[in-house]
Amino acid sequence: MTALPDFLRIDPATRRVSLDGRDPAFYSDPNRVYALLHEHCPTFYWEEQRQWFFTGYDHVNGLLRDRRFGRQILHIASREALGLPAPQPHLQNFDLAERHSLLEIEPPEHTRLRTLVNRAFVSRHIERLRPEIAALAEKLIDGFEKDGGTELLSSFADIIPVTMIARMIGIPDEMGPQLLAWSHAYVGMYMFKRTREDEHAADRAAKEFADYVKGLVAERRRAPREDLLTHMIHTEHRGQYLTDDELVSTTIVLLNAGHEATVHQIGNSVRVILESGRKSGVAPADLFRDEAMTERTVEETLRICAPVHIFQRWALEDVEIGGLSFKRGDKVSLILAAANLDPKKFSDPLAFKPDRQEAPNLSFGAGIHFCIGAPLARLELNTVLPILFKRLPGMRIARAPAVKDVYHFHGLERLDLAW
User: Fold this and answer.
1) CA 365 to CA 93: how far, in whole Å?
2) What values do phi and psi take at 150, rounded to 5?
3) Mean pLDDT of all residues in the chain?
4) Considering the entire predicted model, what is its pTM?
5) Of the four listed, 111, 112, 194, 247, which is most buried by Cβ atoms within 10 Å?
6) What is the pLDDT of residue 30?
7) How far, in Å, CA of 37 to CA of 210, rounded?
8) Low-confidence ranges of the chain (pLDDT < 70)
9) How do the domains of the chain map onto residue ranges?
10) β-strand pairing of 51-54 with 331-335
11) Alpha-carbon distances, residue 5 vs 113, 141, 357, 375 (angstroms)
């Protein structure tokens, strides 16, 4: 049995785990800890988070689809009945923006909102964006190729996803930096590092973000265009249209989900491909020799270095899972990135092996909350990674990458490359 590092305590008998989620030894290399959890205690009570966590592939996959669990609880029970604290006044703008978020609601509201936007994200519609994504990638590389090196996140990874989702919605390219700033502040609410200062920043970002979207909505009502925002404003489902609050929440979640994770994934993917190539002697170009190999390579990077690690669910009724009893109103966490490393599903799970023919990764979730932007994210990765490695065949990591202190997202502070 593998020895535990000093920063991790596991008691398999009680299934109790002590781990500081902000310890760089953990968040810099969470896969090593996930492997130890699979070995010692794949379902555990994380003492610092005061919650039960699941890492097993079958448990995570099953719970994501289990309608006895949901993203929302207040549609079936009051705060008083569940013993939940009252909403905090300093988060009123953030809470309003989240109230109708696709990520946070359950049917029938979720069904209605998702139906109204889903058509724009199906693969056959998204595929039309491939030439535009490729052209943007080529243009960005043109800007730094002659320099012999670049910091890839700021010069490439940050720009492509936010530009593409903004164009889909109908937001001008020049808003990209502001959208990134709002998004980074907004998603600070989901990090283990969250402080009161982070909460105030998220609330300010939510208000500014919402005010901007409201202005866009008013503009599109006056002058409709061929974009997703106009589609959401003017499309009805069973005689109902999206309200202004629903339009704001949906636009914010599409912008955040449409780029935040993909930015991380581009950086994570380039890093793992370069590091594994150095160890194995396999040239990165071989990983992108044809469309099928490119797709397998991308799926393997999504498996081994997923950008979003945790999804939470409320128990909507009393239920038993894996010998544990949960009452209605209990919250559980599912570690998607750990499920992707389950040795019962993946051989040599910590190894980067693009030729795998095993279980599908769970990086985009599953069930009714499966990531609506998955086709767009996959298209962006399958398009820009081959271009990057073809244009810069001598690319190498110039200095050791530093991982962001943003668990449960997983991404790099910067990725310095040279060629």
Assistant:
1) 27
2) -165, 160
3) 92
4) 0.93
5) 247
6) 96
7) 40
8) 1, 280-281
9) 8-418
10) parallel
11) 46, 41, 32, 38
Cβ contact 210:248 at 8 Å: yes
pLDDT in tens, 300-350: 999 999 999 999 999 999 999 989 999 999 999 999 999 999 999 999 999
**Residue 161: CB partners within 8 Å, gap ≥ 6?**
258, 259, 260, 262, 263, 266, 377, 380
- Strand bridging mode 51-54 / 43-46: antiparallel
Q: In the chain, pLDDT over 90 holds for what percent of residues? A: 73
User: Shortest CA distance to 228 belongs to which of 254, 206, 259?
Assistant: 254
C-alpha span between 61 and 335 (Å, rounded): 10
Tokens of 200: 């105030």
Looking at the DSSP bridge assignments, the partners of residue 51 are 46
Say whether 181 sits in a helix, a strand or coil: helix
Q: Which tokens sit at 89?
A: 């006044």
Would you identify the CATH topology of the domain 8-418? Cytochrome p450 (1.10.630)
